[in-house]
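Subject: mismatched residue count in predicted assembly?

I count 223 residues in my input, but I want to confirm that the predicted structure covers every chain. Input:
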Amino acid sequence: EAQVTQNPRYLITVTGKKLTVTCSQNMNHEYMSWYRQDPGLGLRQIYYSMNVEVTDKGDVPEGYKVSRKEKRNFPLILESPSPNQTSLYFCASSPRPGTEAFFGQGTRLTVV
Amino acid sequence: GENVEQHPSTLSVQEGDSAVIKCTYSDSASNYFPWYKQELGKRPQLIIDIRSNVGEKKDQRIAVTLNKTAKHFSLHITETQPEDSAVYFCAATHGNNRLAFGKGNQVVVIP
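Triage response: the counts match. Full output below for your records.
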């Protein structure tokens, strides 16, 4: 089954404790991205990747890192999480920019 | 950067009536305009999209219209049903590689 898989689905952590949210797609898509969803603010792009080893900042990259060592995986790294990073995070993949984005199930992160 | 705005933020309609959601965008180079539906607790899913070389596209009860001159596009849902209740996001490409989303519209279909 074609899908985008994120883990974990829910995470509660403490300020400053490094964490990684994984994202994997099995559709051989070149384009992958991370979004955060906050009430009243919609979906905002954090980082995106055009292909392996090619990543770039989206609209709200501060406090986040990403890597794209393999085509299928695009982890989101929070080196030192802060409470303002409490949010619902979605990973998405597309064959290429400007085509349908397939979203993962979402990761609800709470930083206390 | 691209600025995508949606109106209204909340829309309530009687079952069977039509719903229309409008989006405006700022980047005249935008060429791809998708609409996503997000049901409560679920992930966003594409319901329809349109490219800048097309003015209108229809898929059963859903249609999208694009006015490039005015830089706005609209989602039309006819014969609304309770399962159409959801948050709807419009989006527009900007730069060559990015997708900017609006803040979303809550549509409530009243049985």
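Chain B has a mean pLDDT of 93. Marking this ticket as 'not a bug'.
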